[in-house]
Design a protein that fits this description.
With 304 residues, the chain is α/β, with parallel strands linked by helices. Helix content is 48%, strand content 17%. The protein contains 13 helices and ten strands. Helix 2 runs antiparallel to helix 4 (58-78) and helix 4 packs antiparallel against helix 6 (105-122).
């Protein structure tokens, strides 16, 4: 019997209106958004459902995305659907924490609101990120190391797609060198900071302080951490890894490969967009992948 993985996306796939069908039609989903509002001090339903620009600003994006992921998961759980293991990309790791039972929803919402603020304020200017397409990870790592200034890998997304992050001048210089080394394309990303860069180390420290007051469950469904692409099974491992995650590489491809090697054969992406499902097609086409963003997706999954 294969393992079922619930996986949760990160920033970039948010959109106005995400989750509204769930909010309107499923009481437990409305309760989730209401709890997110209470924990964050924001009107999260308004942020997610009404036309606004804040939804694309990091300090607001993170709570909006997590509330939507948690609401959809709550609907699944109510129908008796739970995972064998969980994982999430960047802020999506907090969706994984909720689904694994590591952290109470209210605590996760409170922490993700703080995380968004810390990350937004850590490097207000001077940072950049670019996607590198069609080049081997080892070559990218080597060129980043040789480039003057701060530049490193933010995300190992899937074969042929890696994101670099750091000081704008260093990211641009590395991009030029990577193109010369054979990259098919270098795509500058529209982001408000150099996420998962050592430049955000201070934000990680602030998050570490905020996490001190958060209760972590002693027993939970295993999840895989972005930092290590390995299972987290002990409560004492959770907080240090979340602190490190802010300024460390997200090892998503390695995470998925580890899960498949350990018998995972069904992956369900829970949340806005189809980013992770797209990565799955490039990592391994032999596994079954579902995606739940809309009510139609949800009904198709639970009624299959």
């Amino acid at each position: 019997m294969g393992k079922l993985v619930f996986m949760f996306p990160g920033q970039g796939s948010q959109y106005v209106g995400m989750g509204k069908e769930f909010y309107d039609r499923i009481p437990v989903c409305k309760e989730t958004y209401d709890l997110a509002s209470e924990a964050s001090g924001l009107d999260v339903a308004k942020l997610c459902f009404e036309e606004n620009e804040q939804i694309h600003i990091t300090e607001y994006t993170q709570i909006a995305m997590l509330a939507t992921e948690a609401a959809i998961y709550a609907a699944l759980k109510e129908k008796g659907h739970t995972p064998d293991v969980t994982a999430g990309l960047s802020l999506g790791e907090y969706g994984a924490l909720i689904a694994s039972g590591v952290m109470r929803e209210k605590d996760a919402f409170s922490i993700i609101r703080k995380r968004g603020i810390y990350m937004q304020n850590a490097v207000p200017t001077g940072g950049a990120m670019s996607a590198v397409l069609g080049l081997d990870a080892a070559v990218i790592e080597e060129i980043c190391e040789k480039t003057e200034g701060i530049v490193s890998i933010a995300n190992y997304n899937c074969p042929g797609q890696i994101v670099i992050t750091g000081e704008k001048t260093a990211v641009d210089a590395a991009g030029t060198a990577l193109k010369e080394a054979g990259a098919k394309r270098i795509v500058p990303l529209k982001v408000s900071g150099p996420f998962h860069s050592p430049m955000l180390a201070e934000a990680g420290k602030q998050l570490g302080e905020a996490l001190k007051d958060v209760e972590i469950a002693e027993r939970f469904i295993p999840y895989l951490a972005n930092v290590t692409a390995d299972y987290v099974t002990k409560a004492e491992e959770v907080k240090p890894l979340l602190e490190q995650q802010v300024a460390s590489s997200v090892r998503w491809q390695q995470t998925v490969e580890r899960l498949i090697a350990d018998g995972a054969d069904t992956f369900v992406e829970i949340g806005p967009g189809k980013t992770l499902s797209g990565f799955m097609r490039k990592i391994n086409r032999d596994v079954t992948v579902y995606h739940i963003d809309t009510m139609e997706d949800f009904l198709n999954y639970v009624d299959r």
